[in-house]
Specification:
mainly beta, Jelly Rolls, 3 domains, 16-stranded antiparallel sheet, 8-stranded mixed sheet, 10 helices, 11% helix, globular
């Protein structure tokens, strides 16, 4: 696999001028750091870029940095713990989709050495400090089943016991050895779902740290006893007929989660015991061993959601040391900038957005970069092991930087990936190197064109070439600051793929539009997935995919409600807020065959809409472009009155001729039927260009295609897609000149 000798990230994705920025770097040799304004879409031909004077630009010593990855619980025992317990018991309820996902996985471990583990999926007791395996069961646990797993140590020997919560589906395992152990020191920290938790450091909104031998799966009610319970007591606990308090634990944690709780806190069960800390972002609000299926909302049945889902691949903050912290220049204009970190071995250019202060004088146009979507796709690896020929007829070329992160947990996962136990990735963090959030990144599925951030750079360059001054915002500012922050703008322009959206964002954009603002939606598959913000700093977003929509994984039963909001996840469409209600169009189909052009409808000939088409001589419109050679492609949206397209909205143009590599959005297919087909048979597989006005004086122009921005630069920006877009922006500005 290729390697990346210089890796970097910043503590945030967006800043105001003068803000402190922290740069985190992992490199074996000293690096040079400088600042540049990114304007050119191409990293190979950065002719429009502008170097920026920055007091922090200099050479710095650097070193290779370990990454805080893999979640665990770190906690101390209660006052009854001593250094000389004759007997000790470690236990927890555990569940995993793949109990053998790693050769060694620690369930509960003591600082003094003993650890209850899974060895190739078989419960066992070991002393990792000495390397001794004390006892291991002969068989594996059963995947997808809850078991109470306990390990007992004492002068009479050691024993592991696994009791299934459901005897019809689980398996009872019992193994013992006469090896005497003791006394056992229970006074030190306990690590749950890993071994030897260390470097635990609270950061605002999260806690990061490092550990070994991570367990990937759910854990409920981990405990440590200073005694050996008998089988009847353990069987009563497994059947939920007894409480762990009856066993007089020296340490135990209740992992039930209520909305509003600090997600890093594990509540102590033992009187006088301090609460534990959940490190590196395990999932909360997940079903536990008593889940009945009668209540699918954790806020109404917290006792049935008393587990945490730990993963060896969880990451909320990579935790690399800070190379530099320095203020950005006070005179910076709003825009996209790159912090260049380089040495003789390689380089990384970390993009940041400089957004205006609320008190700053604003330009009339704002571009909103969809950073939540960037995070959802961060370091995705769908190409790995996938039959790409079933997805596209385009040449598939995987970028070297994408190949470099395969199998390397230090990059973190995307929300399109799976954890080692097969569960989907629900959280994505900004504080890590994100290789596909780089200018010039070529996406494998779109014929090597740009996608997400690299596609939005087409728009940034186009605005500069057309002389349209624009502020740059991110959706995080929209989420935090709301419609008031948008109100000064005559035109707010979306990025090419604002797929992941919070309720606050939808509210802000709707209020801006209805208050007289001009909204341009220049993308596809926008405002699709319900997204929550688990932490603002470090920025960590959350999704629950539910059981519908175009998805690479689906939520486990009962796990649709977001821990960050206490509200249902899934599709906005299923929350009654389909994107058609905001922008007139919504997700219709996806595909990665050739992109197609748009053909004008009869409505386009109406003199009332002539201003949109002024100077646009081509027909069809957009039979060219960097994204698979057309303006309508990748993921495309259409109007639908049943989903909220305003009755007075006008469809000005529509695409056609899509191949069967384009398929209807799966949530629109209630039944699979023979010969359903795709673009060649299904008339609803198309993109629409829509315009409408609102009663409050607002206007909306939507193009319904991710590929649209890839056509803006064609023929040095002298083309129909470019002209239409400029016509609308300038008209929106002119009509709101006095705002």
């Amino acid at each position: 696999m290729p390697s990346l000798p210089v890796r970097a990230y910043t503590d945030r994705l967006s800043y105001e001028r003068g803000d402190q920025v922290s740069v985190h770097v992992s490199a074996a040799d000293p690096v040079d750091v400088r600042l540049v304004r990114l304007i050119s879409a191409s990293a190979d031909e950065p002719s429009l870029d502008r170097p920026v004077g920055w007091q922090a630009a200099a050479r710095y010593d650097a070193s290779l940095a370990p990454t805080c990855v893999g979640s665990f619980l770190h906690g101390d025992p209660g006052p009854a713990a001593t250094a000389s317990h004759t007997r000790a018991t470690l236990g927890a309820f555990v569940y995993s989709g793949d109990v053998g996902s790693a050769p060694v996985q620690s369930l509960v471990s003591l600082a003094s050495g003993p650890a209850l583990q899974l060895r190739d999926g078989r419960p066992g007791l070991a002393d990792p400090g000495s390397g001794d395996v004390l006892v291991t069961a002969a068989e594996r646990l059963v995947d997808h089943q809850w078991h109470l797993v306990v390990g007992m140590l004492g002068p009479d020997g050691v024993r592991v016991l696994a009791l299934p919560v459901d005897p019809l589906r689980g398996v009872r395992l019992d193994a013992a050895a006469s090896t005497p152990v003791g006394p056992v020191d229970l006074t030190g920290p306990v690590t749950v779902a890993a071994h030897r938790g260390r470097a635990v450091e609270p950061v605002e909104g999260a806690t990061r740290g490092q550990a070994d031998d991570h367990f990937t799966g759910k854990v409920e009610l981990p405990f440590v006893l200073g005694s050996h319970p008998d089988d009847a007591q353990l069987e009563a606990l497994a059947r939920a007929e007894a409480n762990v308090r009856a066993l007089e634990p020296v340490a135990a944690w209740d992992l039930a989660f209520s909305y509003g709780d600090d997600p890093t806190v594990a509540r102590a069960v033992v009187p006088g015991q301090p609460d534990g800390t959940l490190v590196n972002g395990p999932a909360r609000a997940v079903t536990g061993r008593t889940f009945t299926g009668r209540c699918l909302d954790f806020t109404l049945a917290t006792d049935q959601y008393a587990a945490a889902h730990f993963h060896a691949t969880d990451l909320v903050d990579a935790g690399w040391p800070v190379l530099i912290t320095a203020p950005l220049p006070e005179e910076l204009e709003s825009g996209v900038y790159g912090i260049v970190v380089e040495n003789a071995d390689g380089s990384d250019v970390v993009p940041i957005s400089v957004v205006p202060r609320s008190s700053d004088e604003r330009r009339k146009v704002a571009v909103v970069l969809p950073t939540f979507t960037y995070l959802a796709y961060a370091n995705e690896a769908l190409f790995n092991g996938l039959d790409t020929s079933a997805m596209t007829d385009q040449e598939v070329v995987v970028a070297p930087e994408s190949l470099a992160h395969i199998g390397d947990h230090s990059f973190g996962l995307s929300m399109y990936d799976h954890h080692p136990d097969g569960s989907g990735v629900m959280l994505s963090a900004a504080r890590r190197q994100i290789v596909n959030m780089r200018r010039g990144y070529r996406m494998w599925v779109v014929g090597g064109a740009g996608r997400a951030f690299s596609s939005d750079m087409y728009l940034i360059e186009w605005l500069a070439r057309r002389g349209i001054e624009a502020d740059v915002l991110t959706d995080h500012e929209v989420h935090q600051r709301g419609a008031d922050y948008l109100r000064p703008y005559a035109a707010v322009v979306s990025g090419s793929h604002p797929e992941y959206t919070s309720e606050e964002m939808l509210d802000a954009l709707t209020a801006y539009r209805d208050g007289g603002g001009g909204l341009l939606y220049l993308g596809g598959n926008g405002w699709y997935w319900v997204t929550g913000v688990l932490s603002d700093d470090p920025l960590v977003i959350e999704i629950r995919r539910g059981q519908a929509g175009v998805r690479c994984w689906e939520s486990l039963p009962g796990e649709v409600t977001l821990m960050s909001t206490g509200l249902p996840g899934g599709l906005w469409r299923h929350r009654g807020r389909a994107p058609q209600a905001l922008a007139g169009v919504g997700f219709a189909a996806q595909g990665w065959g050739h992109s197609e052009p748009y053909f004008r409808t009869e409505a386009a000939a109406d003199p009332e809409h002539a201003w949109i088409f002024e100077g646009v001589d081509e027909e069809p419109i957009g039979a060219y472009g960097l994204v698979m050679d057309g303006a309508a492609g990748d993921e495309i949206d259409r109007a639908d009155a049943a989903l909220g397209t305003p009755r007075h909205a006008v469809v000005l143009a529509t695409s056609r001729g899509h191949s069967n590599f384009y398929q209807r959005a799966i949530e629109e297919i209630p039944m699979n039927l023979p010969k359903h087909g795709g673009g060649e048979q299904d008339p609803e597989v198309h993109a629409d260009i829509v315009y409408f006005a609102t009663p409050g004086g607002g206007e909306v122009f939507s193009t319904g295609s991710i590929a649209w921005t890839g056509s803006l630069l064609q023929a040095d920006t002298e083309n129909g897609v470019s002209r239409m877009t400029e016509n609308v922006i300038r008209a929106f500005v002119t009509r709101r000149r006095d705002r």
